[in-house]
Design brief:
103 residues
Length: 103
């Protein structure tokens, strides 16, 4: 496992200049230190998640981009020692849209 992991984020809310409601957004950056597998070293890895949306009249619309950097994030693989040195835990970018209603 990595010697250390770090995550830091920033979020903000702003009144919507185009009508009622509040615009919001956040960016969270993640970092894993380098890791040692049985035969090699997996280098340090970083990726970021971004989300933005609108709150209005009890509704919340959110668009989230997970792994916005498109990085492949891996951890050492100890079970299948002769097959793989690492296994991806995050691979590629994912975009989600969510709507929720608070009543």
């Amino acid at each position: 496992m990595p010697r250390y992991t770090a995550s830091a984020g920033v979020s903000a809310d702003h009144e919507n200049p185009f009508g009622s409601g509040t615009l919001f957004g956040s960016v969270v950056a993640h970092h894993y230190s380098s890791m040692q597998s049985l035969r090699t070293t997996i280098p340090a890895q970083a990726w970021a998640d971004v989300s933005f949306g609108l709150r209005r009249e009890g509704f919340k619309h959110t668009v989230s981009i997970h792994n916005a950097t498109g990085s492949s994030v891996s951890v050492p693989e100890y079970v299948r020692q002769r097959v793989a040195e690492s296994t991806p835990i995050i691979s590629g970018r994912r975009i989600d849209y969510t709507v929720s209603w608070k009543f």
